Structure formats: structure tokens, C-alpha cells
Amino acid sequence: MKTFSPFWAMKNPHLQTLMPRFIRKQPLFTPTWETLTTPDNDFIDLAWSDDWRCDSVANKPIFILFHGLEGSFNSPYAHGLMHSFAEKGWLSVMMHFRGCSGKPNKQARAYHSGETEDARFFLEHLNCRFPNNPKVAVGISLGGNMLVNYLARYADQPLIDEATIICAPLDLAACSRRIEQGFSRLYHHYLLDSLKQTALQKIHLLEEALEIDVDTVKNMRFLHQFDNAITAPLHGYANANDYYTRCSGLPKLNSVTVPINVIHAKDDPFMTDDVVPKFKLNQNINYHLIANGGHVGFIGGSFNNPYFWLEVAVPSFYDKFTSQTY
After folding, report:
1. Looking at residue 125, which CATH number applies to its domain?
2. Active-site residue 56, yes or no?
3. Which position among 141, 176, 184, 248 bears the catalytic label?
4. Where, by residue number, is the active site (predicted)?
5. Which of 115, 150, 239, 315 has its CA 20 to 30 A from that of 259?
């Protein structure tokens, strides 16, 4: 793995976290979209790097991306990683969690850090379409914690060959507290506002499912409140603490059977030291704790020529798949 050295003027973790949106204001390519109807008559949207129906992609290895909280294809890391893999000969695809593709989903239920059923449905669909292609999955932030949950739950038949987990809040309770402190409150307010707007778009469904009203949603001031009132009861958890305890990925790492890389930045403003494993990891897990990088930043280079280190390092983990014929 190529060592990460931050751009000297951007060692600050908040600059690392925020600058990707200023450096990369437009997506690197226009995706091909596909909508899957879920078993409960909802939908999930997929963004592809190429048309999956073309014969030219039939034998390519497949890069799968699960985005972070309120992320989408437009997130700089999303189209950046998809593009970098596609440039190396992969077919890239990102599954949007419910309500994250720009359209409100049809059911009251949404997504969360431990919701693996939609990922399983998507991966079964993908495996039916491309049964013999190598498949590598990357989970970013919330998507990374979800991916650990998924790989532990379906350890006997994960339907992917390898995985990388990036900046995942593997201790949900600790990260929930951390993001409410100091400058990190900026990210907290942004994410909470986005979640509230999404909830208000389908308030009629939430009123029926949870007996929650518009004013209650509008008056929420903390992510913990949102999780306690909406995320947890909507998805079968007693409260926010129950959700955090049962869905934190850290205790499940050693239940994962496929080879995985786990990447954290020591200065990530969303995290605390609680996300760092203190126990012996199984041999299939490569853990990388990097001094700088912020939250899904890892910007190196210079003012005139910045580069996104993740887009170099992560594809390099899987060069073996692009050197083979399938």
C-alpha cells in the first residue's frame, strides 16, 4: 500500500474532511442508473460506471461501493473511487441506501448502520447477473459499518470475495458523542438537517408507523434524538443505545471470513480511539491506522495538483483481479 502523506497545508483534519467537495465540484462521469424493486415494494437505485447490459463488461471484475450517511453518487469519494476502479478495468456499481438517490422511498423504513437486508438483496441480484466475476466491496463510513455487519451475518456465503472498510464508526455510541463536540458539531448539524429533511418528505408514513409528527422532527437537535425517536423504533430496536450496541461493527470484525482491509485516520473528527481494535485480529484482517486524513479525506499532492490517496491505494489492493482472465 502506498504511504499517505497529506498536502502540507492541509494536515488539519477538518480541511482534509471538507476540501474534497471544493476540489471536486462535479462528478467525474455520468453514471448509468438502474432501479431495483425490493421484496417489500420499495426500491433501491444503483449507479453504474458502464451499461451493465453491454457485452464489453461481461467479464470484468466488479467493484461495489456502499456510501456513508446521507451520501450518494455525487459524494466526491463515491464517483472518485468508482472512476478509479473503472479506469483500471473494473465495472463499478454503487447501491444507494433507501432515500439517498434523490427520491423519497415508498416505505417508512429507511437505512441504518446495521441494515443488511437491502445489501443482501442487491448482492444476490448482482450474483445472479454476474455469477463468475470477482467482486470486491468497499464501505465508506456508515456504509463501512454496515458492510462489517453484513459480512459477519453472511459469513458462510458473503457473495463477495474481498472488502475494504474506510473511516467506519465501528463504535456507534462513541462516535455519536464525538460528533456533537467542538468543531465536529458542523458535521453533526449538516447530517442531522439532512436526515430531518428526508424524514419530513415522508412524514405521512412516519406518522402512521411511529405516531411522530412534524414538530417533533423539526425540534430535534441531536443525532441521538433522531436515532432514539426514529431510527431505532422504525427498525426494531428498543432505543438509540440498543441500536448502537447491537449494530456497532467492532465486536463483529473477527466474524468476517473474507480478506478485508480496515482504514482509519487517527485524526478523524467523526471518531474516537474507541473505533480502533484493542483485541487480536484474525489473519484475514489488515488494519491500517493512518496519522492524518480526516474523515474520508486523505488529500495529498499540492495546491496545483491535489490527489485523492484512497483512489490510488484501494484499487492497488486488488490488482491481482485485473491481471486475470475470467
Report:
1. 3.40.50.1820
2. no
3. 141
4. 141, 268, 295
5. 115
